[in-house]
Design brief:
Organism: Fructobacillus tropaeoli
Helix content: over 70%
Oligomer: single chain
Structural class: mainly alpha
Keywords: Cell membrane, Ion transport, Membrane, Sodium, Sodium transport, Transmembrane, Transmembrane helix, Transport
Shape: elongated
Number of strands: 2
Strand content: under 5%
Protein name: NhaP-type Na+/H+ or K+/H+ antiporter (NhaP)
Distance between the termini: 37 Å
Main location: membrane
Largest sheet: 2 strands, antiparallel
Subcellular location: Cell membrane
Radius of gyration: 35 Å
Length: about 700
Amino acid sequence: MSILLIIALLVGAVVAANIVQPFVKRIPEALILIVIGALFSILPIFHGFQINSEFFLFLIIAPIMFQEGQSHPYNTIRKHAKTIIQLSVVLALFTMVLVALVNANFPTKWPLALTIALAAIVVPTDAVAVKSMTNGLTMPKGLNQSLELESLFNDATGIVLLDLALSFFEKGSLSPVSGIFYFLFVSLGGLVVGALLSLLVVALRMYLNFHATSAKATTIPLNLLTPFVIYIVAEHLGTSGILAVVAAGLVHNWEHSKLQLIATESQIVTATIWQTTTTVLNGIVFVILGLALPAIFKTMTHFGWIGSLILIALAAAIYLAMFLGRFLWVTLQSDQNLTEFFGKKRTKNRRVRARLFGLSGVHGAVTLALAMSLPAKINGRPLPFLDEIQIVATLVILISLAVASVALPLLLKKETADFSPEDLDRVRKQMIDTAIIAVEQSSAKHAVKKALSQTLQTQKFTNGRRLAQADFTTAVLPLVNEVFDELNEYMDSDHIQQNFDENTIAIYSKIIQRGLINPATKRHPVMNLLRKLRRLQSEIKFHTKTRTFTHKQRARYQQEYLKTHPEQQQIIANFRDNRHAVWALNADTQSYADQLLAKHLAKQMIAGQETANIDQVRRILDRFFDLVSHDYQHVDVTVPAEAYIQAFGHEYRFVTTELEKKAISPALGDQLYHEINQAQTLQLMDLTATSD
């Protein structure tokens, strides 16, 4: 139970950070998560909290890297293969040499192997953390891509180099030839194992998509298990499990491109699950870092002030060396392949991007995992300087996060969209209202039109924005009265006079008079409460007097009453005939009211007026018509799939027309197209689930 509670608290911390972050936008989410983790360390359940490093790599890092691989198209990786090697191997080795040189010149007296081990630990970068810091800022596109490509593979470089360093420390020596061979075997072997196993999994999933009875129930769990299985097999064979899951992610991206229009629902669900899962896992990493901070600071007290200051200075010097190394590497590179990412050499743009690239060398999940993975003992003896290495690695993470969170917002401009949120809301409302007008004017049944219009209205809540509410007195009530006058005129039309008798028309006209003439009074909660109390009082008095409390007692009383009052039978028969006639007239009037609302909606759109009052008037009218027809029970209406397709088609045409007229920007059009696609996919998925 304690494990489940710990998992729940870790996930809860990520949720809490997402709630807090909008209120402190200048503070990166990673730092908020670290603070929450530090606060959680006070809880008794986290006293002495430790996590096994192998499980950390297996349960957290492996799925994160698998998703990173899935998010990068195979063609992009193939196109930039040379650049990836430069960023994730050459730059990583260059940075590691600089860190080792800095460490060697500090009075730490660490063995060379452990110096290399620390350098390997701090080599991996965290592009996800950088994204959270640059949210809302204009990070150059090419630079962003370089950070993602670097982070995708330099994790494995750090892991392999750490293994080499520990092996060097254990054996006391390591030949360059065997080291290079080991590096190639572990890295290339991991890529090959991951690719081959993933191809088998992809082939199995493709077969299940075409032949399984319930493809979703098998392919989705299979996809979720893939990184864990491949990681275990690759590690068992002595190759890099991290590189294996990255390769598997790339192969699965290829599968997605081949099955874009097959098993669409499975792919959408799987993508959503992976995005959500990896977001939570990335957050948990920083919560765990926060949990570890009190213990690390407590350990630092054992080294005294001088020892602690030396470790802090070493961490700062390592970070500065890595920044300068990244800056110089980008500045001095003359390879034409890097121009796309960093701009032309010896230009201001190259220098600016070099500085941003250096600051974006933020460290996070993998660095923490590698620091935690250091063995407590080697050759049966405690690993020397273990605490110091873990402290320095943690301080490097914190320094890189703190510096980037301050410097990047100062160097980057705020992101300016091609359209404002107000423009998006305005055009979105026009788009939805256009579709609703087309729905109201269609020949579909009222119940279908009503359900479809209500569904379209929910699109106005996109991105959590509340639907504007019209003022009842100034916007809704005048329109209700106008519709009331138009319905009265409709009662005098030739269509009504020819199809309904005078008695039915007179009865229904009185109903309209009472039901719509003063909706403000009928809507008032106090008036409604008093009306219900009077009705309840009358019913209690009647049932007490006649002693009719059950259904059988009421039926028996009615039969006896009709026997003693035969004249009432004709009255009841006439009433039933009139009721059915009134219901027929009510249905006819309801259809006409739909046309009226469509007309008023179009009129307000042309005038550029707010249309929120139309939806409120529609609700008032629907309630009125339901009361007249005694339709008190909610009946689920199934809207045909073709009705949804037609409605969304009207929205597509609206956006296309506005783009052709250049009334909206292409970026705004793309956003609306994206929202329509999402809404259409969701509705069709719901219809499929209902039909199943």
